[in-house]
Amino acid sequence: MDSVEVLQMVLRVSTSKVYLLVYSLLADLSRPDFKIRHQILIHR
Predict the structure, then answer these.
(1) What gap in Å lies between CA 11 and CA 26, rounded to an integer?
(2) Start-end of H helices in 1-44
(3) CA nearest 25: which of 13, 15, 37?
(4) For 34-44, what is each residue's pLDDT tens digit?
């Protein structure tokens, strides 16, 4: 494996993690209890 392959693997993993994060954030935003949990997170 050369460095280019490793870099591509890392990029692929990081982008999939970003997609998961955005997806979970959007799912949270569509929930009615999002604002309550958001306030709890802020005050923590």
Answers:
(1) 22
(2) 3-29, 34-43
(3) 37
(4) 666 666 666 65
